């Protein structure tokens, strides 16, 4: 009872003072240990991935373009958000400006609903396209996997660009063997956006029961842009929490329950990807924006003797509410929107001779609505979309060298818009995939895959309809919009060897080339223009979602990693070209990118240097989207003294050269927000 009262008191402390909550949480549940650093033995510990086949396998053996970022990489890069680390991966980009609410991931040039976003297996969907619907502090994550390319054969609608799967941390990830309690807290300062952060976690393991409670708060202000200037207004704060429970009924059967919540309040333009470049300073629509996201997940998992799941089931519910308070000074009415997602699934994996067969069923239902001034918002029409599918996959070993993996999934989806604004849409789709892998030496593996992905048009893409001279943009409906389909052929190779530059060093490489044909690619097109009236000035554009009948995509991805004692180095390169085969126009495609990370460890010190070299995007046929090339360099330092291993001090300087650049990302051609300039960050952490 005494312990329960302490937990209840911590919730009240968070509302009263964020620093008090951090201290209270740490002291109430202290007496644990210093958690092991993720990636501490990166040269010897093997990385496990799940997203490529929905079954666990070694990353070095994965015959797919999959990458993984662990919790240590997020911490080492002083990540403000998940994009600060994930953008180091090939053909993974985050743009939309430096505001957290506006940043949106792109995988192989696909973004928004063309990328499957998962947190602990639950889909994160949103009615809006202005930013990704994932509001989570990297400190709450145990890691992230990114599967690039066609993935509908396993994940259903939306996997054209791939899957971004985030996994939240659990008590079992932080507690060392023999330890039953632990806690840690952090205080952070970020001069790039006048930010402060306070975070705390407590975790326990008692018999078959384990629990984790994490709380955090962050405040921020105007962002200093590269080369000078400020991105303002940008004043806000956010609080979030994670409660994660687990119970092991017996060694092979485990129950889990988690709840995650995020709340944000920020005074900024209602489009977080915009700034004063959209018009005169007084014409930029500024409102207090509120975000409220929650996720509840319950699951059960049965495992075999080696720990691999044989049967798993999950149910989840997510909610995303966004709203903007009225601003009478700019004649801006209050607005709101919500997205509710309810979903779940069951998967069975069984072994039969040389076969590992996985099959299951899953699905979800999205409901959305939006209001502006108390009236329905025609850009986000009310309605619902339901998607359900069955899938099967066979990992078939042919001898010791060959692995053949056929997979297929059949989905049915239905879309309904309220009020009779359009007819219901119902359709089915079969998504096949075949992968063949050959390990022709202990170090080298070659693989080839052919797969298909699809995405059903969203409610907003099909039915949005806004005609208003006093609006920043207008939108035209397209009831004839068809699902988009991507068929990809990919060839790749993996390498894992030692003794390249010194005895005992380790080199790992992963590379692939791919070619895709896309039927009915859904893209935003400009179909008209109008003269804006108050509160805006200038010429406004009319947008419509349209199908591009015959798009072609091709690209290259390369990853190289080296480990040798205290030293490590990583390189990632990507290239993508997308064109309309009918008109020969170049479509949306992020520019060529090379990212280099160099790390060194000496006694209690860790240093990491990162360089991002991005070429100019001068091919896009939409001239407004073109961007200049740039180079950005960052330096990070971490110190954990041997005399006080509970203490950890981290500092970093991002954009050392204070370069002024714009990330090529948003499909909105008027989004030209300058990224953050030189910025110093520091974090003080203590483990109890």
UniProtKB/TrEMBL annotation:
Location within or outside the cell: Cell outer membrane
Boundaries of every TonB-dependent receptor plug domain copy: 60-163
Domain TonB-dependent receptor-like beta-barrel: 230-656
Keywords (A to Z) from UniProt: Cell outer membrane, Membrane, Receptor, Signal, TonB box, Transmembrane, Transmembrane beta strand, Transport
Membrane topology, record value: Multi-pass membrane protein
Record motif TonB box, residues: 47-53
PROSITE patterns linked: TONB_DEPENDENT_REC_1, TONB_DEPENDENT_REC_2, TONB_DEPENDENT_REC_3
Highest taxon listed in the record's lineage: Bacteria
GO BP term, example: siderophore transmembrane transport
Motif (TonB C-terminal box): 671-688
Main location: membrane
GO cellular component terms listed in the entry, alphabetical order: cell outer membrane
One Pfam family recorded for the sequence: Plug
Region ranges (Disordered): 364-384
Membrane-traversing stretches: none
GO molecular function, one term: siderophore uptake transmembrane transporter activity
PANTHER family xref list: HEME_HEMOPEXIN UTILIZATION PROTEIN C, TONB-DEPENDENT OUTER MEMBRANE RECEPTOR
Similarity remark: Belongs to the TonB-dependent receptor family.
NCBIfam families cross-referenced by the UniProt entry: TonB-hemin
Full protein name: Methanobactin biosynthesis cassette protein MbnT
